Amino acid sequence: MKNILCIGAGYVGGPTMAMIASKCPDYKVTVVDINEERIDAWNSDDLPVYEPGLLEVVKAQRDKNLFFSTEVFKGIEEADIIFVCVNTPTKTFGKGAGRAANLQYCEITARQIREHAKRDIIVVEKSTVPVHTSKVIGQILSSGDPKYKFEVVSNPEFLAEGTAIKDLNNPDRVLIGGRPNGTGKAAVDELAKIYAHWVSEERIIKTDGWSSEMSKLTANAFLAQRVSSINSISALCEATGADVENIANAIGADSRIGAKFLKAGPGFGGSCFKKDILNLVYLCESFGLQEVADYWEQVVKMNDYQQNRIVSKIMKSQFNTIAGKKVLILGFAFKADTGDTRESPAINIVKQLADEQAEIVICDPKAISNAKLELIGVENVSYSEDPYDAAKNAHLAVLMTEWQEYKGLDYQKILTSMEAPASIFDTRNVLDHEDLFNLGFNVYPLGKKPLIQ
Ligand code: UDX
Ligand code: ADP
Predict the structure, then answer these.
(1) Regions of the chain where pLDDT drops below 70
(2) What are phi and psi of 353, to 5 degrees?
(3) Which residue among 15, 34, 49, 453 is least crowded, i.e. fewest CB within 10 A of its CB?
(4) Candidates 33, 137, 341: which one to mutate for ligand 2, based on the most atoms within 8 Å of Cβ?
């Protein structure tokens, strides 16, 4: 039985390893993290990340061939293959601050692997990292004349939160990049062997390390660009009276464009899109490609613009005074089916409304504890699990996250408890706008005409 170790028990490491353990009973999979609280949670029924279907997979494998532990060094000593799934946040200091990735956690991990290895190891770089990180990790691993050989391969993760289990179970592709020499190819094949337990061969793409790393940045940049593109059109629709959903349907029917990822909304959030685009921008700038950098940076600027635009619309609907008015925020997670709030558009929007001295009540079925962390120091914000209770005396409601349960709320009941005239902003276009209008709401959808009483 071969030993797989994963360093970093976060949104990527936890679900990915649970899936590998479930599909590969011939491997022992151990997930380690320095964060004891997180590991305890992985060993409980209250997992640290909310992901539909994850608990079932974890429970089926835990303590059979899936283990969660804080013993990083012991894990390294026993490992044949190590997945590096530590966080790579955007740098907040020094050169490249606000753009470049902070690789300190990757670097520390590489040093620990070098010091504690007890055999030759394949090191799999899974964190989202800028191009050349495999090389940096490789250089650290091979420095100081180590006793063992390390081969670094890049295997970017493409799972999306909220659908992680589905994506892992049935990936569009698995990408593995390595050095184009004998040992590099052997390591790529060794990793491909793991995925081949459940992924068909034609979906396993083998490439060189740099292309693999850059494919991850490029995929996320293209996806984010689509969101910014449709959001830019939503602004034009509101100005001209066209309907962004009709446009998305019409252009999505063109098979060259495709129907997916054309939903206008409050802008993209999540831990990857902004970080990866800024990485790409930084990379372009470091190679003197300023025009290319500017091109991609515009995707992030458009995302900020969309959120600022929504706040302006809210303000305008309230005669430009929102001070002292109660605002019900429905959803704080960056998208439905996750408790993750990293880079959620709701953060920016709530902060701006709080600056205007609105009284804000935030509801979310899974993200309240993360929302509290995001909004430390922000005044006039309270939290509630119960949207009906939170709606009492509110002047307006803003739907930020497309949670299924918010589609089915009793809006008549909500309207009755709100102040008149009651407004509702549906930043995701998931509610029945005609219905809400007929109940008596002023309805502000995104990228289409408002329905005002
Ligand atoms: C993304 C990539 O999809 C995934 O492959 C990568 O591994 C990590 O980054 P994730 O951030 O979990 O995954 O979510 P995703 O479903 O891609 O959505 C990102 C953001 O775009 C969300 O805020 C979502 O609400 C927004 N979005 C997405 C839209 O506004 N409109 C759309 O049509 C699609
Ligand atoms: P992602 O979304 O990429 O999975 P997370 O922040 O959710 O990122 O998870 C990364 C995890 O990596 C965190 O739980 C963090 O504690 C862990 N981590 C960071 N550095 C180390 C390290 N040197 N050893 C073990 N775990 C680490």
Answers:
(1) 128-130
(2) -70, -35
(3) 453
(4) 33
Nearest residue (by CA) to ligand 2, atom 8, is: 87
Burial of 439: CB neighbours in 10 Å, binned 0-12, 13-18, 19+: middle
Is 452 a member of any domain? no
Structure confidence at residue 144 (pLDDT): 83
**Centre of ligand 2 from the C-alpha of residue 9, in Å:** 6
**pLDDT reported for residue 240:** 97
Q: 195 and 101 in one domain?
A: yes
- Which residues' Cβ are closer than 6 Å to ligand 1? 157-161, 220, 223, 227, 261-263, 265, 268-270, 272-273, 334-335
CATH number of the domain encompassing residue 256: 1.10.1040.10
Write out pLDDT tens, residues 41-81.
999 999 999 899 999 999 999 999 999 999 999 999 999 99
Q: Which ligand places an atom closest to the C-alpha of 51? A: 1
Domain with residue 317: its CATH number is 3.40.50.720
What pLDDT digit, counting tens, does each position of 115-163 carry? 999 999 999 998 766 677 888 888 899 888 888 999 999 999 999 999 9
Q: Mean pLDDT for the chain?
A: 95
Reported residue count of the chain is: 453
Q: Is 412 found in the same domain as 264?
A: no
Positions marked catalytic: 272
Spatial separation of the C-alpha atoms in residues 418 and 394, rounded to whole Å: 5
Q: Which domain holds residue 404?
A: 307-444
| Residue 269 alpha carbon, nearest atom of ligand 1 | 23
Q: C-alpha angle 188/191/192, rounded to 5°? A: 80
334 lines ligand 2 (CB under 6 A): no
Closest to 128 measured CA to CA, from 216, 42, 196, 63: 216
For residue 423, report the distance from its CA to the centre of ligand 1, in Å: 28
DSSP result, 78-95: H-SEEEE----PBP-SST
d(CA 14, ligand 2 centre) in Å: 10
